[in-house]
Specification:
The chain is of the alpha/beta class and about 290 residues long. The chain has helices spanning about 25-35, 45-50, 50-60, 80-100, 125-145, 170-180, 190-195, 200-210, 240-250, 265-270, 270-285; strands at about 10-15, 40, 65, 70, 105, 150, 185-190, 215-220, 260. The chain binds zinc ion. Zinc ion (ZN) binds next to strand 7.
């Protein structure tokens, strides 16, 4: 198992972690000042500053991506909505290529409309088949431009609003159905926060192997958790056995970055420098 205290180059910042404190260009400046060489930015953060400008800034600073957040949200109540989702995913794939990302992370979507209001359908079975079709269509395009897609299974508490793919097993079943040759074009983004509780986790990580494990995200599960989305804990402040989990991931052959990703009202209210320093020190000692 890799000793992270000696491998700062494996640290990646998911830039949502400090999204409330600063725009992306200032986040990148702060990363460069700390010698952080990897980030995973979100599309809205990139768009707010400008894709070309961010691309230039990253090149000048020598900072690379460990992923790009995010594509997905394939489900819709009608054909026009399904087509718009595919179009949007195509743009996300193109942006990921422009920024040189190693993969585009997919939060696949759930009951149509549920993220912003009453769902237009309660049929999670239809949602799941739309997700499968959406990934298949996007994969066809992604292959032509060489951008791997990483399905991120989300904790089942998100099954209505954000993602109806909720376990690693389910994500890997999709990978096997759509990319049976394990070509590297389709895999998973494994987020400790979403999967730590899963009784099948260790076997499924083994099943995933290096060619399906495209990204690894960490934070911690607080007890009690006060908010279903924005109360993620800093590594070490919760109940996830992060070292054990990373051991499984690395034993399966994963050699990529360890990406710190918090959505937290508590950490968003702290100064960006303090948050980044804490992320880096916990990465070295806890993750
Ligand atoms: Zn994640």
């Amino acid at each position: 198992m890799r000793e992270l205290s000696r491998h700062q180059e494996l640290f990646s910042l998911n830039t949502a972690t400090v999204r409330m404190q600063a725009p992306l260009d200032r986040i990148i400046e702060a990363c460069a000042a700390r010698g952080i060489g990897l980030i995973d930015p979100w599309r809205d953060q990139v768009q707010a500053v400008g894709l070309d400008k961010i691309g230039r800034q990253l090149r000048d600073a020598g900072i690379k991506l460990s992923g790009y957040c995010r594509g997905g949200f394939f489900t819709a109540a009608d054909q026009a909505g399904l087509a718009a989702a595919l179009e949007d995913n195509r743009r996300a794939i193109d942006e990921a290529v422009t920024l040189g990302a190693p993969c585009l992370v997919l939060v696949v979507g759930a009951l149509p409309g549920a993220l912003t209001g009453p769902p237009k359908s309660k049929d999670i079975g239809i949602a799941r088949s739309q997700v499968r079709d959406g990934i298949a269509a996007s994969l066809d395009y992604a292959r032509t431009v060489g951008m791997p897609l990483a399905i991120e299974p989300l904790h089942p508490m998100q099954a209505a609003e954000r993602a109806c793919v909720n376990t690693l097993e389910q994500a890997l079943d999709l990978c096997d159905a759509l990319d049976p040759g394990r070509s590297g074009a389709l895999g998973v983004a494994l987020d400790a926060y979403h999967v730590w509780w899963d009784p099948k986790l260790s076997g499924q990580i083994e099943r995933a192997g290096a060619d399906r494990l495209l990204a690894y995200h960490v934070c911690d599960w607080l007890v009690p958790t006060k908010d279903l989305v924005n109360d993620r804990g800093m590594m070490g402040d919760g109940v996830i056995e992060l070292r054990k989990l990373r051991g499984m991931v690395e034993a399966a052959g994963y050699k990529g970055a360890v990406e710190v990703e918090l959505f937290s009202d508590a950490w968003w209210s702290q100064p960006m420098d303090d948050v980044l320093d804490t992320c880096m020190s916990r990465f070295k000692t806890v993750a």
